[in-house]
Amino acid sequence: MLSPDQSVTFGNHIRNNTDPTVVQDLADGNNNGLAEWYNQAATPSYWIFRSQVTAEELSNSIDLQDIADITSADSDRVLKMFQLRALNGNYFDGTDPRTRSAWDDVFSAASGDNSQQAIASLWRRLCTEVELIFALSSGAGTNGDPDVTGFEGSVSSDDVNESLLLTA
């Protein structure tokens, strides 16, 4: 759900967008079409960090052989990180560089390379057109240097309608 300030920003973006599909949908009052356009993957591709990576996703990306190959201290760190997140909704925040660094450090030895790469890929994803509006320019938006966004999720036709009313 968009905050009131985000709704104004979104409404202004819709009104100033020159993409022919957006221009036509705006002229037709097609709020469903506008929501669909803004919920599609951004073009060109733009990468962002995920704010919520589930403990299950992270656990499934760990190569079990890598666990056997890391130090006992790093094995303890893995368990503690999972235990801490179990108390906090079972999510890891990929937008936090400390979180990413902690996992990267655990599997930094060559023996943990498979897990390190798999976990690194979990932190990022392609963003949508609406998420791109709120990108914070903390990264280049590339796969290797993702950005952070101030809004994650999709918009509905009701969000479009409210945003357009606020900017009428």
Short description:
The chain is mainly alpha-helical and 168 residues long. The chain is 56% helix and 6% strand.
Defining traits:
single chain; 168 residues; mainly alpha; two-stranded antiparallel sheet; 6% strand; elongated
- Structural domain tally: 2
Helix content: 55-70%
User: What is the alpha-carbon Rg in Å?
Assistant: 20 Å
**Low-pLDDT residue intervals, each spanning 5 or more residues:** none
Number of strands: 4
Strand content: 5-15%
Give me the secondary-structure category. Answer: mainly alpha
Overall form: elongated
Overall pLDDT: 94
Q: Sketch the topology as an H/E string, one letter per element.
A: HHHEEHHHEHHEHH
Strand order within the widest beta sheet: 1-4
Described by strand count, sense and barrel closure, the largest sheet is: 2 strands, antiparallel
Task: Give the number of helices.
Answer: 10
How far from one another are the termini? 20 Å
Structure characterization notes:
This protein is mainly alpha-helical. The protein folds into two domains: 4-48 and 126-166, no CATH class; 51-122. The protein is 56% helix and 6% strand. It contains ten helices and four strands, in the order αααββαααβααβαα. A two-stranded antiparallel sheet has the order 1-4. Strands 2-3 form a two-stranded antiparallel ribbon. α1 (4-16) packs across α10 (157-166) and α2 (20-28) packs antiparallel against α3. The radius of gyration is 20 Å and the shape is elongated. It starts with a helix and ends with a helix. The mean pLDDT is 94.
